[in-house]
Type III pantothenate kinase
Amino acid sequence: MAQLVLTIDIGNSTTSIGLYGPDGKLRFRSDLATSRNASQDQCAISLMGVFTLYQADIQAVTGTIMSSVVPSVTGAMFKAIRMLTGKAPMVMGPGVKTGLNIKSDIHTQMGSDIVACSVAAIAKYPSPVIVIDMGTAVTMSYLRGNTYEGCVIMPGIRVSLEALSERAAELPHISIAQPPSIFGHNTVDAMRSGVVYGNASMIDGMIQRLEDASAPAAAVVATGGNTLAVLRECKRDVLYDADLLLDGLHLVYRKNIEAKQKKS
């Protein structure tokens, strides 16, 4: 039977949904705001709405894999997927084969989204590779071959910006946009300059520090929602891969299904 694989990543701010066809290509991708109090029915309605929007049949899905860093949503989404597809989804976590050799003191503390991005980066880019995921938090991982050497975690762009606005009474809440110049001539432009150029400098600097601690990277790849405005100002050459996480989930699903088929 041709596989139609549903991939879902539940992040702190955004839930990403992707459907992969039998050819292994992404048929559609949808990004929804994560609702931390969503019920099973609410998750089901959201999924049905996405499939209707992209004119796809959710009952034709042959398998699902999901990752989540929001425990309060994980159970509801799991039940919604099982109700709509008739099959329990594979959940990233202990017991799922990834092919990664993870250097970690406590493997269960490593986010499933980081694992999925790493699996895709190993498959798609030369080694060593640095993977940057810019979401609610900014994570930077260093991979050599199939070995996950470690990562750094920093506050995300939006988190930093909101903290600045909430803590400083005279600083407004603003959108992330390209500043006209590094020199801000008003409060909004000055804040945008700080967040864009400041984060670009942080990324450039952390890439250099990771390389100093190991070896120069053959590739640096970034993903995440708050990425492009910052990447444009990085001095290092950073590739942008919007679907890195979903690609990683799809690869992990196939790896585990193929392993089960070989055993049977």
